[in-house]
## 1
Amino acid sequence: MSLSVRGKAAVVGVGETTYYKRGDSPDPEFVLVLKAILAACADAGISPTEIDGYSSYSNDRNLPSRLHTALGAKELRFSNMQWGSGGGGAAASVGNAAAAIAAGYADCVVAFRGLAQGQFGRFGAGRGGGTISGEHALGVPYGLMSPAQMYAMRVTRLFHEHNISPDTLRAVALASYHHAQQNPRAIMYQHPLDADTYDDSRWIVEPFRLYDCCLENDGAAAVVLVSAQRARELSNRPAYLLSAQQSGPFRSGASSHNVPDYATSSFKTGAPRLFAQAGVTPEDVNVVQSYENFTGGVVMSLIEHGFCDYANANEVITFDNLVSPFGRLPLNTSGGNLAECYMHGLGLVVEAVRQVRGDSSNQVPNVNVSFVNAGPMVEVASAAIFGSEAVL
Amino acid sequence: MNALPPGLPTPVPSVDGLDANYWQGTRRRELWLQRCQSCKTWQWGPEWVCHMCHSFEVGWEQVKPFGRIYSWERVWHPVHPILAPACPYVILLVEIPDADGVRVLGNLIGEATQSFAIGDEVEAVFEDHDDVAIPFTLVQWKQVERRAT
């Protein structure tokens, strides 16, 4: 396949700040991003002044021109934004970085995301007073204002159409918390969750309980990509990008919840291209990082990427199957957005890379194909597959 | 009595006029939705162009204020302090058979724990908010009473 990024670029460095509860960062958001980028460069063994491209998503506030200037980098050749859709662009930001390298637009591109919710406002809070217009005027006056409230009805509809059990949501939550107990970076490290505690937890909005909802955090994460040739010089185990796809189904942005295919993670259109470009099948994937804004979105994602189907989802999506190292489908092995940190999905990209490198805190044995997605149920979601040298 | 307490952001028509017919219609206790005058496709929320035939003559038609529950959620956690005394409350996503199944949101009137299910028929209730700078009317929903058989 000639029109492909497959194997042309690789992640050679990952960087994360300390992860904080929302509002607790001692640093401004821009400083968090700088720290994550510097950490990723140190991990890669390259100078930050070599970075000549930036890729982010969700209208990140930290402009490439400012980062480039602050870092004293030699030249800025590529800056790229995946608009909107919450964290749905996390995997796309890596795909766009690799595309820039494959096209010759830049040599060393960092994909990054920073959040300081104390500085800029909390995701999960509504607002009172004032006026509202446009699409939000069709929802906010009904008390429909938070992300959990925006996506709960999709999951209710999923249960209705496909007889999916709410037990699948619990399995996803328990797997994330289980993995976080081995990950000292995780916000929920040393905060285990058992089934009874999950079952007794309060409703946020049915069908989501407290533990079905992602955390809200401050922090930053970054990954550095270079060409495959350069990657081999820098690392003995680069995480090659095999494929990346954005996925926005027919009328996915229709307001007032009018996307025609409603009970979807938005991956039905992108998933077939993702696997075709990577040259692998879902059966070849050794480990899965699936973005948990809410557990129900993970269930949809796993089905729509072919890791299970509607008929057997209740049998496949169980705690035993989802845990590393020996589950059939190890899921969210850092603790993910539920229990490591809600780094708007870039933390899941970092973990997907770690699994290829072999340095995850919940390492799955012999990982050659590592999957990550972002933003289920949003207007434009994205996914990526990383691979080791062995699968190129 | 309104479905939710006062103090939430109040809806105003878009300054670009895209949804003016909807909000003017609810003030008259009527439900008006977009329908392409060229190819007759219904669409909601409002767009400037018909997604099917790309005509800009999208137009508006009044529809019967009845629908079926397409999905729902019961909110327990108040994301703003104003909502605390109202929790739990129910938000419905209602498909409008009269408009080819396009969907309209709203609260379910009455007890949050009342029995209902996807597919149940509901009827619009027009909830006036007259005590604000720009008065508006919300479309809310109540269950259609089942006749004894």
## 2
Amino acid sequence: MTSATGGSSPAASDGRLGRRSFLNWLLGTWAGGVLVAIGFPIVRYMQPPDVAEPATESASGGAAGTLAPNSFRIVPFGAAPAIVVRLATGELRAFSAVCTHLSCTVQYRSDLSQIWCACHNGHYDLNGRNVSGPPPRPLEPYDVSVRNDQIVITRRG
Amino acid sequence: MTPRRLFALVCGLVGSVAALSAQSPNPAVSVDQARALFQNDVHQAAGLTCAACHDQTHGDQYAAPARASIPKLCGGCHSNAAYMKAFNPQLRVDQLARYLTSTHGKEINKGELRVAVCSDCHGAHGIYPVKDPRAPVYPTNVANTCAKCHADAARMTPFNKPSTPPADWAASVHARALLVRGDTSAPTCSTCHGSHGAAPPEIENVALVCAQCHVREAELFRKSPKKALFDTLSLPECVTCHSNHHIVEPQDSWLGFAGDVGCAKCHDESIGGADVIKSDRKSLDDLSAAIAAATDRLARAEQAGMIVDDGRAALREASDQRVLARVSMHAFALQPLADGAAKGLKAAQQAQAAADTALAEVQYRRKGLAVATIFIAGFLVTLGLKIRRLNRAD
Amino acid sequence: MASLRTWLAERAPVGEILDFLRHKHVPQHRYSLFYYAGGAALFFFLVQVVTGALLLMYYRPSAGEAYESVQFIMARVPFGWLVRSIHSWSANLMVGVVFVHLFSVLFLKAYRRPRELTWMSGMLLLGLVLAFGFTGYLLPWNQLAFFATRVGTEIPGSIPVIGQPIVHLLRGGPDVTGGTLTRFFGVHVAILPGIVTVLLAVHVLLVQRHGMSTPPSIEGEIRASGRPAKSLPFLPHYVLHDLFGWTLALALLAALSAFYPWELGTKADVFAPAPAGIRPEWYFLWMFQTLKLVPAKVLGLEGEFVAVVAFGLGGLAMFFLPLIDRDTRTSRRVVSWTAAALVLYMIAMTAMVLRGGGQ
């Protein structure tokens, strides 16, 4: 039922007032919904995500305590794998795990104390230098540090 | 024309004819051309002159050495360790000794001139060091150098040798790696046949060369039942299935009984290990299908604007496992191929899951948008009504 | 509530402002839809301020981290994808609406006396908005932006004597580097917002001072008919209309972000050769195409330099337009036809680039 234009008799004005305040209430409710639709994402946005910052310069190398001497671990560093090696002396070293020959993922050979690529028998020494086989370039080295038993590997330069 | 010039002309002609009749694959050169080429020669840089290799005939005219004497001529310096140390202590001095063990060396000692001598491969006057990309014996040039004779049917037929190997090699994955990708670690003729000691390799030798790079395949093969079998049948390892020159990319379909490749070369489905072959093949096919599906899904997620780094990492792991599984095939058994393929399958499924999560997130965002739009639409409609009411009230 | 109002009214000019707004009227005629353009531009600007401030919480302005931080915002921060996509879409919609606003003022002659200062502050704001777009585009540090910035900052180099110093000033050095990124960042989040806030305040206050202009043709009709001009009260009618439009714009931004999320592309590689098809953002395409079409030499001078000078002179002419236009029937017609020609030219040049032609 549409209201009549102009005029305001008491009975009609009651009805119109009632519809008017209903309309205002409705408008207010929808407005509230819109404000929630805007406010909720903003509030959630400001809450810190699980990872505090982008993994550009550094990545986690896993727990330090569970990496035994003369063993290794492959961890993700951005979109590519990295290799963390604990030498027999206990020292930690980390390199890019992408073989410079044809991009296979390298591994650590505890019998040779060398980093080795299974694909075409490429060998790297523990400074990442390509010492035998097809690989044309050394592996990119990373800096390693330990914080609260967590290994952190960082890009150099 | 002066007598001197006439003599030079005759020498030049004789030299050229000598070159032709000796069947060198390299074109004959005149003395002037030779002098020009020699400007870039490593021997010239070392302070040697024409007289070091040539007998002087007339003034500044030199005679070309007899073909059969060339190896001893070069060997005169290059086999002399004390002499060579003065120029390059690292240079080997066993080239002549190895040459004499080669087919070329043995033939030339029998008086056969239609085989390669030093100058045919290294050049005569513009000799570059092996490491120089301009050298005919630089890795990327070796195949062309050998092909000068070994791809020429006219030269090969008298020796009952095929002239197809160079072309076969040129169509192989190794040629593609060396010439297209520039990977100088890829094998060329001299890698498997030897350079100075070039000879057709014995059955045992070829496999050992392959094993220099393809270590895992060789290890697995030698532990497999095939090794003893091949030894008994005097079949060459590696070459039997993969060929020697025309080595192409092996396909998963080789692990089966179709066509004339892989297992089907010797076997049919009646053999005892047929179900192992079928099972291994299925593992590889399933893995490939999972990788393809995950790749597709990840691409779709990325196209929808999502970033799926963890999915990409899992996909990389799955691809790595597939490479290892394919290598494991050389054990000719169920394991370790089945385990490797299973690991790969798990990784591929993880990649797929990451992509699915991302796509679900896209749907969630659209649903969220729908909710927000409902509120906004409701607000707009109500506001519209209010505005209309206001307008009518005036 | 009433006591709060009285408390405020004693201390702040609330009453005066509300009074003024209650008396403010907006003319109603067949062109009054264009009156919303300015407000829409303001809305998009406010969206930019809010989303920009939010992005500042996670963005890192260094060559080594900018790209990764934007990726982080899009992938890891809750609703980061929404904030970033809205910021990118709103930027483009703002530029589009600003051009609509500019041309509607031009065609409807709203720059005439006494609104010359409003026009001039608006022209300055146009330049600043384009500067916002240019500096902001580089911030994700992706391939397209890096090379487009290199091309764009090269252009002033064609001006003799002062050209190269200008390029050095823009780039923070001879080349586009991480130094350029930090410089653009500072300009984008501090310098430009500061200047724009002041200018925008001046612009909006001047609009309030003079009210909405009625186009000459409508003025003529009103005079001819003798009837009073139709108008809409600002409060509450026009405000509610504006609110309607702004909410619609918000819905559009959300939809665009959900269905056409803004791409990130690949990280800038300063050593790579320029990828094919490098071009600036769409609102610069018409200038870009003009530069490409200009012959290498014009009247003995370098073609690019001539084009840059032409743009400069054109811009100056437009800036001083209210002082140049003597507001007669003829001059107004000249302005309208020139404006129409300019619009067509801009559209044609833009279309040429987008369809891949024009070399």
